User: What shape does this take?
Amino acid sequence: MAAAWAGAAKIRAAIAARGKASIIVATGASQFEMLDALVGMADINWYNVVAFHLDEYVGLPINHPASFRGYLWDRFVRRLPTPLRAFHYLDGEGDVKAMIEAKSAEILRHAIDVAFIGIGENGHLAFNDPPADFETEKPYLVVKLDEACRKQQVGEGWFAGMQDVPTHAISMSVRQILKSASIICTVPDERKAKAVQAALQGPVTANVPASILQKHGDTAIFLDKPAASLLP
Assistant: This one.
């Protein structure tokens, strides 16, 4: 997949230049094919890579089918040909405040080489739903999920109904995502077409959080034809 090849090139370049790379990894249906291709990159020395978790639900156990910790272990970490130097998971159980403080301090010690992300049906980045906070410098924060975001999770089959979807999540902030040297944004499916159009062609606004990617100097957005169907 083109997104995985582009991201892998960034990882290889960082390792060649500095002996290590730091990345951000997203979850969700939009990342299935990209992650499947990325874990097949046998020429990357993954032991020189440190990875950070983009977002996670508050209060969801790791054995729940929608757990992003479980997703990342199953679809990424355990499938790598060699182990990562470290993967910094977000744990939405227990003392969330202390966990956020620890993970925020950790990510600030790293210059992120590439962030693998997607765009939500409501235009969100990570779990920064509209209107997103474009100003906070906090690396991670607890956010309230809007109805459109929660409906998307049901629509993708992660939860049986709205009553099962958590109301809050831990999210990497918009400004922290934008600190990444490169951003690889993978957005398949016609369900995302309106969000893609607004993010790429509309004004930069907190009401379409992904529109902030227009301000980033090295963002590559990979779309399938249905997701790009409303673009010229």
User: Anything to note?
Assistant: Strands lie at 21-25, 49-53, 55-57, 86-88, 114-117, 140-144, 168-172, 182-187, 219-223. The first strand starts at residue 21 and ends at 25. The chain has a mean pLDDT of 96.
